[in-house]
Amino acid sequence: MYVCLCVGVSDQEIRECVASGAATASEVMNRTGAGSGCGTCRATIASMVDGGGGPPDGGIKPCSVRSLCVLRSSSANT
Ligand code: FES
Predict the structure, then answer these.
(1) Rounded to two decimals, what is the model's pTM?
(2) Would the CB of 52 count as within 6 Å of ligand 1?
(3) Minimal CA–CA distance to 22: which of 2, 45, 3, 55?
(4) Is 74's pLDDT higher than 50?
C-alpha cells in the first residue's frame, strides 16, 4: 500500500528503509523522498518509525489526497 502518494513510496519501502538502519522519520523521508510533497503522510511515517517498522497492516492509514492518485494514474497513461 502506498503511504506517500506524492512520491509513490509504499509501506514496504518504509519498513525496508527502517530495517536498513534509518532510525528517525526524517532519515526515512530523506532516503526515500517520502513526505517531500504535500506532507500528508509524514505523521504516518513517523508512527511507522516510532513503532519499529510500522503498525500491523490494518493500522496504516493511506494518504487521503485522492486527487494525487488520479494525477499519478493519468500521467502513467501518457
Ligand atoms: S503523500 Fe507524502 S508528501 Fe504527499
Answers:
(1) 0.68
(2) no
(3) 45
(4) no
CA–centroid distance, residue 40 to ligand 1 (Å):
5
Cα of 26 from ligand 1 centre, angstroms: 14
**Structural domains of the chain ordered from first start:** 2-76 (1.10.10.1100)
How does pLDDT run across 7-56, given as a tens digit for each residue?
999 999 999 999 999 999 999 999 999 999 999 999 999 999 987 555 44
Q: Report how far ligand 1's centroid is from the alpha carbon of 74 (Å).
A: 17
